[in-house]
């Protein structure tokens, strides 16, 4: 059964361990939501607001995040400003699509991104330490200042990507 939440207001929602198979969250506001350990294969969150959203340990195989905003979210608090980044650490994002998405500073540490479409995505300063990017499309992807230490990449994967200043990449 398909779950239709297009355009829904779900900011700061706690949705841990949710079953969202084929869920439709296009244009939804999920800023600061917690979807940790959720099972959401084939979920669609196209043009969604995912700033500060936590997806750690979630199953997001074949999910669509095209044009999603995953950029850091500045939260004003009396004790000072807090910066929250989207967190996909350890998630399975095989075959997911993040084409043209804003992924600046996002945590993809240890994430499975096999065959993911990251074409023209902005991953400036992202943490891709230990991520598996085998077969991923990186054409036009901005990886400047990203941490790719221990990441698995297909041969020639960075030929069409912008990776100046990225850590963990050898020029050899």
Structural write-up:
This protein has 172 residues and is largely without helices or strands. It is 0% helix and 8% strand. The chain has no helices and four strands. It has a two-stranded antiparallel sheet. The protein has a two-stranded parallel ribbon with strand order 3-4. The mean pLDDT is 90.
Keywords summarizing the entry:
two-stranded antiparallel sheet, little secondary structure, single chain, 0% helix, two-stranded parallel sheet
Question: In a nutshell, what does this entry contain?
Answer:
The protein is low in regular secondary structure and 172 residues long.
Shape verdict:
globular
Let me know the average pLDDT. Answer: 90
Count of extended strands: 4
- Rg (CA only): 15 Å
Oligomer: single chain
Largest sheet: 2 strands, antiparallel
Which SSEs are present, and which pair or pack?
Blueprint: E1 73-77, E2 80-84, E3 132-133, E4 152-153
Parallel strand pairs: 3-4
Antiparallel strand pairs: 1-2
